[in-house]
Design the sequence.
């Protein structure tokens, strides 16, 4: 059974292996709330996953260790298992989705693990891992549906009880449910008054659907930039624990995740992957009522591929009103660009691109279209620019 004693033993086993990650005060991310960030993105391997993976490996028998271990992962559990295996001198084989970020694949290899790339998503990698386990006799280390793994993740809650002793709520990402199960079980056992909220990507709401409908459900597909929580089906054990200990589960959109990643970078100099930013996204966009409460968002990981990061930043700039794209219908005559540029300059906007199109659908024969991209301050600034152009007689498309 999962017990507080087991979580305590996990905490002791992780001494000198996992970091006791810091807590950062971040009230600007959610005005009206006393908000803190638990920075598991700064953990060894860049994710909380090393906690559960390492503790699970210490619980294996010598015979199981000798056979070697196999795991499946969206990327972060892979690195945790690979590091734990190297520290214990154990062979490790990791099945990863072929679409996993290159940074996660290469990091897993760098810890000495053998990597097997599998077409599809996490759930496909899981089936392949089970196949290889049966064929080769490996010991299987489940990424979330395992009491020892859950106990390892629960050590985060023990740290939070010391770091933010009088917290009212904790907001936690959910993929398969191992992280929130460990945190919710530990917190609710020690202080039932603390609220525990889970957050999933809108494109992968497997736990939310399962809890809402009273039975485990498998999604036909998942689609999200938060690859670390792109799980079609929650675990049996994690489902039971979430039903018992989690107060509410909400979802966030891709745009909200992108905006949260950008806000963490700009305001707190923290790099978070999509899965690591969903809790912050829920707080930023009011998915959970945190007003007047002392709350902690768990930033669960920071292993984002730099190519994805650049796209996410661009999207985040648009969503937060820091970038603006406008299409303006003009008469094709000299001086039009100068007039538009003057209005935008007066409003403090900054051009980053301009495209002039003579063939503009719906315009007059003498009409044309100018598509511009601007650097702006926020949504209010964007609206001021739009109003100024409209007041000057320009038609926005």
Sequence:
């Amino acid at each position: 059974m999962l017990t507080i004693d087991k979580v305590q033993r996990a905490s002791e086993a992780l001494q000198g292996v996992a970091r006791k990650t810091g807590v950062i005060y971040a009230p600007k991310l959610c005005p009206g709330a006393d908000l803190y960030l638990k920075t598991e993105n700064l953990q060894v391997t860049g994710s909380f996953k090393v906690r559960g993976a390492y503790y699970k490996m210490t619980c294996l028998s010598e015979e199981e260790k000798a056979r070697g271990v196999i795991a499946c992962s969206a990327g972060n559990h892979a690195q945790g298992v690979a590091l734990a295996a190297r520290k214990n001198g154990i062979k490790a084989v990791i099945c990863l989705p072929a679409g996993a970020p290159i940074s996660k694949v290469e990091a897993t290899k760098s810890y000495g693990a053998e990597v097997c790339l599998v077409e599809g998503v996490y759930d496909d990698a899981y089936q392949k891992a089970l196949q290889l386990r049966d064929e080769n006799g490996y010991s299987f280390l489940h990424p979330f549906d395992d009491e020892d793994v859950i106990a390892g993740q629960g050590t985060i809650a023990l740290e939070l009880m010391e770091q933010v002793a009088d917290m009212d709520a904790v907001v936690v990402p959910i993929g398969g449910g191992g992280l929130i199960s460990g945190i919710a079980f530990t917190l609710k056992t020690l202080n039932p008054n603390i609220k525990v909220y889970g957050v999933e990507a809108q494109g992968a709401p497997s736990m939310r659907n399962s809890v809402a409908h009273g039975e485990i459900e498998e999604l036909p597909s998942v689609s999200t930039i938060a690859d670390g929580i792109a799980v079609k089906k929650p675990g049996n054990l994690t489902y039971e624990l979430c039903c018992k200990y989690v107060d509410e589960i909400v979802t966030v959109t891709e745009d909200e995740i992108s905006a949260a990643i950008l806000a963490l970078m700009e305001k707190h100099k923290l790099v978070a992957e999509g899965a690591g930013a969903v809790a912050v996204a829920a707080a930023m966009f009011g998915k959970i009522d945190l007003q007047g409460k002392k709350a902690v968002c768990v930033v669960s990981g920071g292993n984002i591929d730099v190519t994805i990061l650049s796209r996410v930043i661009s999207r985040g700039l648009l969503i937060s009103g820091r970038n603006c794209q406008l299409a303006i219908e003009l008469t094709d005559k000299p001086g039009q660009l100068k007039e538009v540029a003057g209005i935008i300059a007066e409003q403090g906007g900054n051009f980053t691109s301009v495209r002039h199109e003579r063939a503009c659908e719906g315009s007059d024969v003498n009409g044309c279209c100018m598509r511009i991209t601007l650097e702006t301050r926020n949504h209010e600034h964007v609206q001021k620019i739009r109003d100024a152009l409209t007041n000057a007689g320009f038609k926005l498309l």
The chain has a mean pLDDT of 92. The first strand starts at residue 23 and ends at 25. The radius of gyration is 24 Å. The first helix runs from residue 4 to 13.
